[in-house]
Structures are given as C-alpha cells and as structure tokens.
Amino acid sequence: HAQQRMRVSVAALALAVGCPLLGLPRPRGVAATDPPTDSLEPSGCDGGGSVNNGLQMPPPQSTPWSRLLPNEVRWVAAVPPRHLSGQPHPWYTGDQLVQNMTRRHDDPAVIAARQRVVTHGCLDDLETISTTSPDIGHAAARLFRRDGFVVVTDVLTQEQVEALQRATAEILKSIFEADPNGEVGGGSGDLPHRYSLGVCSATRHNFHVPAFAQLIDLPTTTPVLTAIFANRSDYVVAGAGGDVCLGGAVEYQALHVDNIWGDFPGAIQEFPPPIVTINFAVQDIDAVNGPIRQIRGTQHSFEPLPSLEDEPLWMKHSTVCPMPAGAAIFRDNRAWHGGTPNLGPSLRALPNLEFFAPWFRSAYLTRTMPREVWEGLSPHGRHAAREVVREDRGVSPGQGYYSPRGEDRHRAVQGDPG
User: Fold this and answer.
1) At what angle do helices 2-16 and 108-120 cross, to 10 degrees?
2) Which positions ≥6 away from 336 have C-beta within 8 Å?
3) Residue 273: what are its φ and ψ, rounded to 5°?
4) Measuring CA to CA, how many Å separate 66 from each of 26, 165, 169, 342, 343?
5) Neighbour-count burial of 182, counting CB atoms closer than 10 A to its CB (0-12 exposed, 13-18 middle, 19+ buried)
6) Quick one: CA torsion of 377, 381, 386, 387, rounded to 10 degrees?
7) Quick one: which of 23, 304, 344, 404 is 20 to 30 A from 373 by CA?
8) Nearest to 168 by CA among 344, 312, 348, 35
9) Neighbouring-strand partners of residue 151
10) DSSP symbol at 97
C-alpha cells in the first residue's frame, strides 16, 4: 500500500504542473536511452515553446520552514552557480545541465530544469517498506542488500518530525548567521547553498542535541538495523549529521561514496555492510526540492565513479522520491549517491544517524555525546551509544557552535569562537 501511495503521489505531482507522467523505466543495471537534448530546453509540456506557469515558484509562505527560520537563505542570485564562479574543479566543470544557468528561480533555464525533473525524475519502480509490514526488519534488509538502500515509511511520528524540524532549524539559524548568502556552503564538493549538518558542527556531530540522540533506538529502525547487521544488535552509533540543500541549490553534487571507514585493510566492497546511514525526511520530498539520487547495486562496485560530465542522465534522474515526511532512507555508505538541485521555494533537510556494524570500527568514532543526554536514552540506545558518550560530565570543546568555515570551527574548539 505504501508503494502504491507513493506512485500515486508522483502522478499527482505531474498532473499538478500540467505535464504527463513520463517515467524512464529500465531493466535493473541497464542504462536506458537518455531523453533527447532538445527536451532540456525551456518549453511547455505540449512542446509549444511556452513556459508552463505551473512550474513557477509557489509563495515562500507555503513552506514548512517559514515559521521556524525567519533568516532562511534561499535563491541568492548574487551567488553564481559554481561553474560560473571561476573556481575550476573536476567534480562540477562540464555539467551541461547547469551551463548558462543563474541562481534565479525565474531563470528560463531553471524553469526548464524543473520541468525536466518533474517529467523524468523519481524512480518509477521504487519499492518501499511500511513499518506495518510483517517482519519489517528482514523485508527491508532484503531490499537494502539488493539495491544498497531502502526506504521505510512512517518511521517517525508527527511529534518526532516536528522535534527534528525544530532542532534542524536551530542549527541552521547559526549557519545562516555565519553564511548569510549561502555562498560558503559545504558537504561533498563544497557547493554553495548546500551544507553538511555534521561538518558544520565544531564537534563534527550533533549528539548533544536530544532530538537527534532520541532517534538512536526506535521501534521502527532497530529491527531494520539488526537485520541488516546479520541479526546482531551490538552495533554502535557513530555519527549524527545530515544534508541540507537550500532553495536555489541549482548544482548537482557529483556521485560519491561516504567514506568514513578510513584506511580499510582490503577491498571494502567485498564485505558485508560496514556502515549504515539513516536519513530522516522531515518534510515531503519530491522531484523538485533536492531528493538524493542513488545508483542501485553500486555498493559492491569496483568501477570508477563517473564525473558529472560523463554521468548519464538516467543516473542524474535516479532520485529517491517521492518520500513523505516521517519516512527514512537506510543507505549503505559504499553505494554511489549524490545530491540533486533544489529548485523549489525552500530548503530540504535530511538529518541523519550513522551506524557501524558490530565487526567494524574506525577513527571516525569520537566521544561527544554528553552523559546527561546518554542517560536519557533507552537501554538499547545507551548500548548503541557506548562508544560516542563522554566518559566524564564535561562539555566537548566547541559543542553547540556551527559554521561552514573550518577556521571558525577550529577557533571554537580552541575556545575562541571570535
């Protein structure tokens, strides 16, 4: 039923903008023929050359972040897209999809890009697991092992969604004060209008934030993690961060893996999942507002990652959506993935937790969780957090300080936030 609801939502999105639903079905692991180049030009859905008004920006007041973030940064036209910034980098030079595009919501190239992702975006055969499914853990683990990720719906209650929204908004208030134009940015590729909630934290994590810590042990996630980790529940939580892309993040993030395994002795692709990241949807995610893209089955791949210039369109359109608020995506950190443009009116946030398998450890583990936060967790939550909790009742250097600038975070850790 959850899968059916999500497919109906895709169709509803297409109808809402007056366009037919044109999916890109393809056999698993086989690239389909890309859409013709002329389909990327500004035009109406009828091909008549007029811009469809349904693809224009909705008013900012309609976004879920408007009351939480009075200083929300979005669509700052003064910040040029990275290909125009004079900063060459192999990850974002040569990407034809953002050539000649400005960071303006009414730019004809941006309107055409919205039309393209509405028409071709979202995996049309996305399978999801409901938390009401029988044997949810093993059902989700089966898809996770096959594809390198799995979406589980109804993971969070409405109360948990709102708590995580508020916590994320508080973090972003500090980030926006440090970067009022969204030009510093961050995350993989250091793109403007995009941030890592973990990297921006001076402690590198958000374990001091109760709304994050309380998600370590949930009746909707613990069975899935246990099944993925070969029916063992002695895994550890390793990180608390997430990804945010602002409205106007027009660039694609290059495909990458989340390497927090460091100097691993051997080919990590040959092992069972060493790390699982859970990204929590705190608002509805659709084709337009920056869904994550995942390339199925790549968690065991030894092939080189393609550059943005070489990446085929079907990969850029392999986006995990629609995803309703309260859903979560469980990701194998070895699987190829990347951010996509947020062409909507407001930011998209995917806070996360990262978990290490019982057999795996790396230097990424640091003790930054305050003991008073740890003491408020369930028994299993405390067990999972046993290697990130502080051994004393002190405060980690830089706790609560956020900035996308590394030098600012370094000063905060040294006790001089400036």
Assistant:
1) 150
2) 255, 256, 257, 294, 295, 298, 301, 305
3) -55, 120
4) 39, 12, 10, 16, 17
5) buried
6) -110
7) 404
8) 348
9) 128, 329
10) G
- pLDDT classification of 82: cutoffs 50, 70, 90: confident
What distance in Å separates the CA atoms of residue 408 and residue 55, rounded to the nearest whole number?
A: 39
Tell whether pTM > 0.70: yes
What is the Cα 333 distance to its own chain's centre?
A: 12
DSSP at 218: -
The tokens describing 66, both together, are 């408007």
Q: Which amino acid is at 362?
A: S
Single-letter code of the amino acid located at 19: C
> Which positions ≥6 away from 348 have C-beta within 8 Å?
244, 245, 283, 285, 289, 290, 291, 342
Q: What confidence tens digit (pLDDT) does each residue in 105-136 have?
A: 999 999 999 999 999 999 999 999 999 988 99
Tokens representing residue 357 in the block: 């398998």
77's tokens:
């036209």
146-174: per-residue pLDDT in tens? 999 999 999 999 999 999 999 999 999 99
- Cα 355 from chain centre: 16
Is residue 56 over pLDDT 50?
no
Show the tokens assigned to 233: 């529940």
In the numeric block, which tokens belong to residue 72?
Answer: 């929300």
Is pLDDT of 316 > 50?
yes
Using a CB cutoff of 8 Å and minimum separation of 24, what contacts does 180-187 make? Answer: 180/71, 180/73, 181/73, 181/76, 181/78, 181/79, 182/73, 182/74, 182/76, 182/79, 182/246, 182/248, 183/76, 183/79, 184/404, 184/405, 185/404, 186/404, 187/243, 187/253, 187/339
Tokens representing 296 are 């199925």
pLDDT digits (tens, 9 = 90+) for 324-361: 999 999 999 999 999 999 999 999 999 999 999 999 99
Tokens of 81: 């897209």
For every residue of 295-359, DSSP letters joined together read: -TTGGG--SPPPPTTTS-HHHHT-B---B-TT-EEEEETTS-EE---B-SSS-EEEEEEEEE-TT
Closest CA to 289 of 97, 113, 96, 86: 113
Task: With a cut of 70, say whether residue 31 has pLDDT above it.
Answer: no
Give yes or no for residue 36 having a pLDDT over 70: no
Tokens of 345: 């009116």
User: Which CA distances in Å does 197 have to 99, 186, 202, 291, 375?
Assistant: 28, 9, 10, 17, 24
